[in-house]
Structure formats: C-alpha cells, structure tokens
Design brief:
Structural class: alpha+beta
Number of strands: 14
Shape: globular
Radius of gyration: 18 Å
CATH topology of the largest domain: Fructose-1,6-Bisphosphatase, Chain A, domain 1
CATH superfamily of the largest domain: Fructose-1,6-Bisphosphatase, subunit A, domain 1
Largest sheet: 7 strands, mixed
CATH class of the largest domain: Alpha Beta
Order of helices and strands: HEEHEEHEEEEEEHEHEHEEH
Length: about 290
C-alpha cells in the first residue's frame, strides 16, 4: 500500500504554503502552552467531550486571517463555519477538476487541553484533489513543530524524518486508537484483546493528529481511527505519507491505497506491521 501521493503542483506555491503552515503551527504552540488548563471555557457540541474553546476559536480566526492574506483564492474549513459547508470525510482520490483547500483543527484534543493534560495539537493541511499536499502539526508540550509537503519529506523542527523499516512485529510495540464521539467503535474491545495477545499495547490518548504523527516518527507502530473529522487528521497524514508510513483510507478511497478497511476506518502503520494490525481489525469486526 503506497503512501499519500498525487500530481505535482507549482513549486513556489508549495514552498510558500509549507513555510506559512509551519509558522502558524509555531504560533499556535505558544498559545496552547499559555492557555492549557487555565480556565478555558468549553462549549459542547455533539457530546460532552466534543468541545470548542475560546482558544480554539482565537487560533482558527488567526489562521483564517493569515491564510486569507497569502492565499485569498483557497478556502479554509475548520470547526467554525467556512465559506461553504465543511466537506465530508474523504481523503482519497476525487473526480473532477483539481481544487485546493485548507483544513485546520486549531486544538485537536480539546478535552485534554481543557484539563491541562499535555497531549493536544494544532493541525493544518492544504489538500488538492488527490489528498494532502502540505501538513503542519504542532506538539506544544514537547516543543515540536512537524511539517512536510508532497515530495519534500517530513521534518521535525527542521530535522528530516524518515520512518525506518526495521520493525516487523508488533510484539512490544504501542498501537494508538481513539474513542468515537459516542464511545467504543465496533470491535474495539476485540481489537484490544488481539493486540494484547500479540504482546502489543493499545493506547487511547485523546488526540488523533498526534497519534498519527507518532507513527510517522517511529515512536508508535500504528494508529487505527474510526470516524475522525478530516480536519483532525489531514495534516498528520501529509507527514505520515512523506515519512513512509502505510496508509489505508476509508471506504470511499480507491484501490491505490490497497483497498478500504471499512466504513470510516483509517489505518496508519509502519510498513512492517501494517498487515498484522489490519488483520486484527478485520478479525475484530467480522
């Protein structure tokens, strides 16, 4: 299963998008550090932990202002209303003319942010018709900004990152997943049992963007996610693809990603363990 790829684009635009996305991620990291756990006022959406805070709104407005100045013809979609309704989850190939768009998750992991738990992120991505072109993810509490662009690799605070292919077993490894907005995803308990049987540990940490980024960094072997908003994962998927991770898309994706795992499922894994983790998922959800 190949990583995220697509058609080439104007290298000048790509360079400018990568630079500005990285700068916005750095700005956001400073704000998140300053505000986390300090009297944030959350407004619930679909579930008690599906929150949007004042900090989230402030960072999204700042992102909108900066991108509107530099890329006035490219729409941005986030938690707040965009110029048109936010698109449905579909990061696979699209038909029709190529169009660019930005997606931002100003604070991914709002529940952690509100509680002061140091595991949340800022995520920004530019996408074209075939998927993520540019991605930037800030990991504020570890002082890291990860950025990457199609064909240009991934960097962590400016240092190139390439996912090694040494691990061929999940024994002793960590696999990340997340709860859905309504709780456990179908088969989650059995998936966890199969992972434990293979001597792997499953972790639910509360931030989809960082779960995927840890795979790209080689610190986590895989991430299996159900029903995540596209804006939460697009930036990290740009990084994972450039680092060399295996990515299997939701059911709407085409065969270039090796086929779908099932409705709303996303698997990101180190190449040597992707088949094993995918098999856990398949067995768990039969």
């Amino acid at each position: 299963m190949p990583s995220v790829s697509g058609q080439p684009m104007d290298p000048g635009l790509l360079s400018r998008a990568l630079e500005i996305a990285g700068r916005l991620a750095g700005d956001a990291a400073d704000v998140i550090i300053a505000k986390a756990g300090r009297g944030a006022r959350p407004a619930a959406r679909d579930s008690p932990f599906d929150w949007v805070t004042d900090t989230h709104r402030t960072l999204e407005r700042h992102t909108r202002r900066v991108l509107a100045e530099h890329f006035p013809d490219i729409p941005l979609f986030g938690a707040d209303a965009g110029p048109t309704p936010a698109p449905a989850v579909d990061l696979g190939a699209r038909s029709g003319p190529v169009s660019l768009r930005w997606l931002v998750s100003a604070v991914d992991g709002n529940a952690n942010f509100v509680a002061g738990v140091p595991w949340c992120a800022y995520s920004l991505a530019m996408l074209d018709a075939t998927g993520p072109l540019v991605g930037a993810v800030a990991d504020p509490f570890r002082g890291q900004v990860y950025a990457g662009a199609r064909g240009r690799g991934m960097r962590a605070n400016g240092t190139p990152v390439t996912l090694g292919g040494g691990r061929t077993s999940t024994a002793g490894a960590v696999v990340c997943t997340e709860l859905t907005r309504t709780g456990l995803w179908p088969g989650m308990v059995e998936f966890t049992r199969l992972a434990a049987q293979a001597h792997a540990g499953v972790r639910v940490l509360g931030c989809s963007a960082l779960a995927i980024t840890q795979v790209a960094l080689g610190q986590v072997s895989a991430a299996v996610l159900h029903g995540c908003p596209e804006r939460d994962v697009a930036g990290a998927l740009a990084l994972a693809g450039e680092a060399g991770a295996v990515i299997s898309w939701p059911a709407s994706a085409d065969d270039r990603t090796g086929g779908p795992l099932g409705p709303d499922v996303l698997l990101v894994a180190a190449p040597g363990v992707a088949a094993e983790v995918s098999e856990w998922w398949r067995c768990a959800t039969l």
